[in-house]
Amino acid sequence: MQASISLSLSSSSPITRSDCTAVANAYLCTPRSLRFCGLRREVFESKSLNSFSVSTRLVSCPRDSSFKKVCAALQSNGTPSKGGFDYDLVIIGAGVGGHGAALHAVEKGLKTAILEGDVVGGTCVNRGCVPSKALLAASGRMRELQNEHHMKSFGLQVAAAGYDRQGVADHANNLASKIRSNLTSSMKALGVDILTGTGTILGPQKLKYGKGGSGDTVITAKDIIIATGSVPLVPKGIEVDGKSVITSDHALKLEFVPEWIAIVGSGYIGLEFSDVYTALGSEVTFIEALDQLMPGFDPEIGKLAQRVLINPRKIDYHTGVFASKITPAKDGKPVIIELIDAKTKEPKGTVEVDAALIATGRAPFTQGLGLENINVQTQRGFVPVDERMRVIDANGKLVPHLFCIGDANGKMMLAHAASAQGISVVEQVSGKDHVLNHLSIPAACFTHPEISMVGLTEPQAREKAEKEGFEVSITKTSFKANTKALAENEGEGLAKLIYRPDTGEILGVHIFGLHAADLIHEASNAIAMGTHIQDIKYAVHAHPTLSEVLDELFKSAKVKVNSSSPVVQPVAV
Amino acid sequence: MSHLLQTTFVPATSPSLRRPLTRTTHYPTRALHIQSKIREIFMPALSSTMTEGKIVSWIKSEGEKLSKGDSVVVVESDKADMDVESFYDGYLAAIMVDEGLSAPVGAPIALLAESEEEIAAALAQISSSSSAAPAPDPAPAPAPATAPDSSTSNDGPGAITGVSSASVSENFSSRSSVANGAMGSSVHPASEGGKRVVASPYAKKLAKEFGLDLRGLVGSGPNGRVVAKDVEAAVAAAAAAKVSASGAALASEITKPSGGGTAVDLGSVVPFTTMQNAVSRNMVESLSVPTFRVGYTITTDALDALYKKIKSKGVTMTAMLAKATALALVKHPIVNSSCRDGKSFTHNSNINIAVAVAIDGGLITPVLQDADKIDIYSLSRKWKELVDKARAKQLQPHEYNTGTFTLSNLGMFGVDRFDAILPPGTGAIMAVGASQPTLVGTKDGRIGLKNQMQVNVTADHRVIYGADLAAFLQTLAKIIEDPKDLTL
C-alpha cells in the first residue's frame, strides 16, 4: 500500500458508511442515531461484556466448553457455522484491508476475528496515508500563506508566516491516534474479536497466534484472509539510520526539517514528501531510476505536474540513476549518496545532502506467515493470488479457504484497494461470487494541487486499443475555464478523459488540479457501475463547483452512440 | 502546410465551441515559399474563439536542438496554458515573440532551422522579413553589437584602466549574465578542492536564472555548500559594484560627451529591474559589514622608470600594479581572506586580482588568476587577452567572478583619492588614485619633486584589522618603490 494513499475511514462497508466516529461516539454516549440496525443495538448490549476478559479466557482455555458460551454472548458477531471451527473468518492483519473485510464479514453474519501483531490501523493509519495527510494539510496552508502573490490576488495581507515543527508533527501523530482508536472502536462495537500477536498458518484452516513460542494459541477458521500489508522497501547499499537516512516511517514523525533532503524515488510517496518539505522550507533533490520523474502517471499529467510541482519549487533532480550507496551523516560529514547510471551502471558522481528519504516503494510483509506449511511460494515476497484473491500454491493450484488481500498480494498497493478486495472476499465466502474490477479503483496523490486517476493511462489505453482493435479518443478540460477554480485563484489544472468513441466506455480519467482527489469519484463510480459517457453527460452538477470540470469533460466527449437509458417518467416538483 | 508546427493538445473550451485544432487559420502563404529548410513556428489556434495568444514561456532557447514531439513553447489562450510541441526535428533558430508578449493566431513566433548551419540563414531572414511579419509586437532584433570602449586602452599609472570595484556590464540582461563579486576558491570538503560544485537545488535554480557561474563561488552552507543566499549575495555584489561605480560612469561621460548614454525620461518614475532590486537590497545589506579604510601615499618614480624600460615588451601598468599587489598579498594572506558567515575566516588558496574595466555601457572585472605566481610578461599578455575578451563580451564566468581582491582605479580622470564599497564576499578592495608630481620633503631635509599616488583600501574589519592593512600597505609601498621583484 502506498503510504500516500488516503483511506476513507468508513471503509467500504455499506452499514458503516456513516463514519466510524459516529459509531464510536454513539457507543461512548447514548446511541443517538437509531438508523443503526438491530444488529448494532445488540452490539451495544453485548459490549457490556468485557472483551478483554473474553480474550483472556480464549487464551487460557481455547477449547474449553465455556468458550461456546462466550461466543453465544457475542451474538452480534455471529456464531461459527457448522464444521466445528472457532471462527468463520480470521483475518491476519488489522490494517485498512483487514478492517474493511472484518466489518463486512460481521454484516454478513460471520463470526470474525482479526489478528494484529503491531497496532490496529496498519501502515495507512499509523505510518502512511493518514499522518501524511496531516502533514500535507499543514504544509499546504504554509505554502499558501507564504505565497505573497497568491494572497495579494485575494486582497489579503499576511505578515511573516511561520510554523512550529513540533506542532505540525503533533498534528500528524494526534490524527493517527484518533483514527486508530476510531478504527478499533468500530470493530469492537461490532464485536469483532481483536486478537493480539502475529499469526502463523499451521495448515489448512488452522493457525496460531501470539508472541511466538509455546504461549501461542491455536485456532481454526473456515476461511482465512492474509492482510499483512507491507513495509518500506530499502534497496541494498542503502543504510537507513532513522536520523539522516530515513524512510516514510521516520519522515512522518517530522523529527527534523533538513535544509536539503534527497528523495530517492519520485512516485506518490516521494512527490507528497517533496510537497511537505518544500513548503516547510527544505530544498529537495529527486533521485529517480527511470528517465522521467513521476513514472506511473499519465505522461501528459506528469508533464503538467512537473511544471507546477517541481520546476517552480526549490527542487532539482537526477533521472536515470540509481542510488547505489547511501551513507548516513556522521562525524560532521553530510549524507553521501553515490549515483550510478541506471542502465550502464557507470558511476555518475555523488550527492551530498543533509538527509535522504528512501521512497523507492514498499515491500510485502509476508515473512513468518507459515506459508511453507501449505506449500505456497511467495514471488518477491508477494503472495500469489488469482482474480478472486484466492491464494495459489507452488503447483499453481488454489489453496482452499485461504485468501490474500492488499499490499501482501501486490495487485494494487492502495489502502482502499485492500479494503475493496477484502469485501470482495467476504462476498465470496458468504456464498456470492464477486470479482473486483481493479480498473475502477481510483488513486490519488495529495500534493498541492492534487493528482488523481482511475483506469488506464493514455499509453496503456492505446496499447489495449491496438491489440483489441478499437478506437480511442481523448478529451480534456482545463480548470482555467472553471468558475470555482478561478474564484479560488487555482486555475492551474487539467482533467483528461480517455474513452471509446464507438461505445462511450470510459477507459481512464486523470485529473491534476484543486481537489482532484475528491473529484475522481464521479469517474471511478461511472467505471465501476459501467455507466457510459452518453448517459452520465446528462447528469446535473451544481454551479459553481469544481465538479463541473468533469461535467464539461463528459460533455466534450464525442460518442457515436446515443443515450441508452430510457426516458424517465417526469416527476412533479 | 506540413511544416507548420501545431499543438497536439485539443483545446479545452466549452463543448459547443470545441473543434479539433486544424490548420484552417489563414497562414500567410509566404511561409510556404521559404527557401531552404527554415520553418516558421506559428501561433497555434488553441480554441476556436482564440484570436491571439500570449507566450507564457519558451521551454527551449535559441540554438537548442528540438526533436519531434518536444514541447517548445507554452502559450496562454483565452482558456488555458498549453504546451506547443514541435512536429519536426531541428534547431530553434530564432525567437520572434518574447515571453510575455502576444501574437495573433497564425503569426510566426519563431523560426526552426533544420540544421545548425541554417540558423544564420534563419536569422538573416528574420531581419529582412520582420517588418513584414504580421505580429503586432515587433520581433526583437538581435542586440546590436556594441562598440568597444576606448577608455580602457590608456595605460599609464595615472590612467590605469578601470573604475571602482567588481562590476557587471549593463548590457548583459539580468538573465544572461551577472558577474559576481570577487569570489575565492577556498577548499571545502564538498567541492573536492573546487573540482565539483556543491550547490543546493534552489541555489542552482537561482544561478541559472541570473546566468551566474557557480564555479569558484564559496558557499556558506553546511560543509561549504553553496546555498541560495550565496548566489543572491554574489548577484547583489555584482550589481552593487555597478552602483558604486556610478561615479566612474559619470566621469566617462565627461570624457566622452558624445558617448551614447541612454536617454532618460525626465520626471518619470522607472521601477527597478531585477538586478537593480538586488542592488538596492545589497546596498542596505552592505551596511551590515563593518568596513574601515586605510590610506597610504606611495612614490611611483621607480615604478614609472621600470615601466618605461619594459613597456616595449608588452608589459602594462595594470599588470604591474596587479603583480605588486599580489606579491604584497603573499606576505599578508589575511588581506586575501574574507568573512562569509559572520563566524569564520575563509582563507583563499589563490590570489586572484580582479581589476575593474569600463566597457561600453557598464563595467566588468576581469580576473588575473594566480597573479602572484605568473611572471609579469605572461600576466600582461593575459591582461590584454582579458580586456579584448571583455570588449567582445566573451569573458567566461570564471574569468570575471573568481577574484579574491579587487583593484579599482579612477586615476585617469584625475581623481586623486576616493574610497570604494567592499563587494560582499570579499575581504578588501583597493582604490587607486592618480599618480601626480608632488613636492616632497625628504628625511635628509631636502625638498624634491616626486610622482606619488594615493591608495585607499576598504576592508571588512571582522577578518582584517587595522594593523593587517597597515602592514600590507607598507609592504606594497616597498614593492612599488623598489620594483625589481616585479620582473623576477
Automatic annotation (TrEMBL), chain A:
Q: What is the lineage of its organism?
A: Eukaryota, Viridiplantae, Streptophyta, Embryophyta, Tracheophyta
| Pfam families, per database record | Pyr_redox_2, Pyr_redox_dim
Which family is annotated?
A: Belongs to the class-I pyridine nucleotide-disulfide oxidoreductase family.
Q: What is its main location?
A: plastid
User: Which catalytic reaction applies to this protein?
Assistant: N(6)-[(R)-dihydrolipoyl]-L-lysyl-[protein] + NAD(+) = N(6)-[(R)-lipoyl]-L-lysyl-[protein] + NADH + H(+)
Residue span(s) of domain FAD/NAD(P)-binding: 87-422
What is this protein for, i.e. what is its function? Answer: Lipoamide dehydrogenase is a component of the plastidial pyruvate dehydrogenase complex (PDC).
Q: Does the keyword rRNA processing apply?
A: no
Q: Quote the PANTHER family the UniProt record gives.
A: DIHYDROLIPOYL DEHYDROGENASE, MITOCHONDRIAL, DISULFIDE OXIDOREDUCTASE
EC number(s) reported in the record = 1.8.1.4
Instruction: List each copy of the Pyridine nucleotide-disulphide oxidoreductase dimerisation domain by range.
Output: 441-552
Keyword annotations of the record: Chloroplast, Disulfide bond, FAD, Flavoprotein, NAD, Nucleotide-binding, Oxidoreductase, Plastid, Redox-active center, Transit peptide
List GO BP terms, alphabetically.
Answer: response to arsenic-containing substance
Q: Organism, per UniProt?
A: Forsythia ovata
Give the SUPFAM superfamilies listed for this entry. FAD/NAD(P)-binding domain (SSF51905), FAD/NAD-linked reductases, dimerisation (C-terminal) domain (SSF55424)
In this chain, NAD(+) is annotated as bound at G265, S266, G267, Y268, I269, G270, L271, E272, E288, G361
User: Which cofactors does this protein require?
Assistant: FAD
The disulfide bonds in this chain are: C124-C129
Q: Does the keyword Nucleotide-binding apply?
A: yes
Subunit composition and interactions: Homodimer. Part of the plastidial pyruvate dehydrogenase complex (PDC) containing multiple copies of three enzymatic components: pyruvate dehydrogenase (E1), dihydrolipoamide acetyltransferase (E2) and lipoamide dehydrogenase (E3).
What name appears for this protein in its UniProt entry? dihydrolipoyl dehydrogenase
Paste the cofactor note: Binds 1 FAD per subunit.
Automatic annotation (TrEMBL), chain B:
- For the protein in the UniProt heading, the enzyme class is transferase
* EC number of this enzyme: 2.3.1.-
Write one Gene Ontology MF term.
acyltransferase activity
- Tell me the keywords, alphabetical order: Acyltransferase, Lipoyl, Pyruvate, Transferase, Transit peptide
Q: Does the keyword Transit peptide apply?
A: yes
Peripheral subunit-binding (PSBD) domain mapped to chain residues:
198-235
Pfam families found in the cross-reference section: 2-oxoacid_dh, Biotin_lipoyl, E3_binding
On the tree of life, the source organism's domain of life is Eukaryota
Segments of skewed composition (Pro residues): 135-145
Q: Which SUPFAM superfamilies match?
A: CoA-dependent acyltransferases, Peripheral subunit-binding domain of 2-oxo acid dehydrogenase complex, Single hybrid motif
Name any cofactors this protein relies on: (R)-lipoate
Q: Start and end of every Lipoyl-binding domain?
A: 38-113
Q: Where is this region: Disordered?
A: 130-166
The text of the family note is: Belongs to the 2-oxoacid dehydrogenase family.
Protein name per its UniProtKB record: Dihydrolipoamide acetyltransferase component of pyruvate dehydrogenase complex
Q: What is the lineage of its organism?
A: Eukaryota, Viridiplantae, Streptophyta, Embryophyta, Tracheophyta
